[in-house]
Design goal:
alpha/beta; Rossmann fold; 4-stranded mixed sheet; 4 helices; 6 strands
């Protein structure tokens, strides 16, 4: 396994530049639909590649990360109830935030409408989304 002294991914592609910029953000917001009990492929790639932003000391068990001070937020929607994958995805991202030592919040949308624009026609959901965004923006 190749180990780099700096926090960066060994792969050289479009995601490498994005990963390098993430730790400078105050909040990392990931939005994904839930497909077959997991996040979308794009969100999963981001999650997998975030491994490069951690350093694990095998001898002591200590974890160091470029994410220091970064909070995490998840917005996830699914066609079923909370047990049909939404809670699994939430727990995955909650564990990432915990490992990074950052805060975590989520907005889960069960039984999401399948038609385009459907969520935008739900005033209760729109209020929850606006309140969630305001709470994220007001964090110190």
């Amino acid at each position: 396994m190749l180990r780099l002294p700096e926090y960066r991914c060994v792969l050289k592609d479009e995601a490498s530049d994005l990963l390098a910029r993430i730790p400078s953000a105050d909040v990392l917001v990931v939005a994904t639909p839930v497909y077959f009990f997991g996040p979308s492929a794009q969100a999963k790639v981001l999650l997998d590649r975030a491994y490069s932003l951690f350093k694990f000391n095998q001898a002591t068990g200590a974890v160091d990360t470029a994410f220091k001070g970064t909070s995490f937020a998840l917005i996830a929607s699914g066609g079923g109830d909370l047990g049909d994958g939404l809670k699994i995805v939430e727990e995955t991202f909650r564990k990432l935030a915990s490992l990074a030592g950052g805060g975590f919040s989520s907005l889960l949308v069960p039984n999401a409408p399948h038609e385009a624009g459907g969520p935008g026609r739900d005033p209760g959901l729109m209020k929850r989304a606006v309140d969630f965004g305001r709470a994220l923006a007001s964090r110190p």
